[in-house]
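Exercise 7. Given the encoded structure of a 193-residue chain, write a plausible sequence.
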């Protein structure tokens, strides 16, 4: 498939469609700097998915955004010093794969296979082996690396975390940063007509 519109029209319900939608949304949010609500609102790829898959995509995208600092650190650990995945779409594919492996209840093989397929769909034939190698490394070493990370400071902008430390102290700043990584609870209000 050669263009993004063609890719977004292909919904076979095989699990790849939800990852394609997540990749498209991440490209809009991180690449085009759209606000998350604007990106989700009216996105054809997202809206074409069944309800269950939309929930998965929303969780995947928001988890990537919350843990982006960790994801960048994990990618850096797996690469040669100074190497950066290019183009940005390749980095977003790695985010999707690593997020599923380490932070979501997705089978490792499914996360790796669908991420390699994403690279194929985006005409990155020369990068499929790279994606496979990085994600296989995450399945073997990623959990150890994650345990070594300073999760609180990695996922917050330095200036923001420093301000929290200044205002609340190290312990409370860390607690606030860690709390920001959890999904907000759902609050439903019944409206009388």
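Solution.
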């Amino acid at each position: 498939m050669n263009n993004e519109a063609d890719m977004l029209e292909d919904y076979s319900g095989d699990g790849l469609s939800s990852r394609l939608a997540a990749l498209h949304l991440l490209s809009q949010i991180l690449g085009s700097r759209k606000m998350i609500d604007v990106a989700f609102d009216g996105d054809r790829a997202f809206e074409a998915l069944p309800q269950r898959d939309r929930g998965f995509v929303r969780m995947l995208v928001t988890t990537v955004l919350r843990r982006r600092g960790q994801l960048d650190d994990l990618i850096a650990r797996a690469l040669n010093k100074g190497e950066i995945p290019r183009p940005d779409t390749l980095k977003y594919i790695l985010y999707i794969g690593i997020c599923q492996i380490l932070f979501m209840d997705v089978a490792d093989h499914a996360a790796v296979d669908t991420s390699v397929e994403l690279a194929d769909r985006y005409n990155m034939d020369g990068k499929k082996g790279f994606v496979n190698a990085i994600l296989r490394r995450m399945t073997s070493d990623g959990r150890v690396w994650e345990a070594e990370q300073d999760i609180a400071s990695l996922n917050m902008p330095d200036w923001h975390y420093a301000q929290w430390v200044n205002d609340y102290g190290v312990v409370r700043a860390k607690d606030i940063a860690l709390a920001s990584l959890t999904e907000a609870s759902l609050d439903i209000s019944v409206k009388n007509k």
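Remark. The radius of gyration is 18 Å. Students should compare their own answers with the one above.
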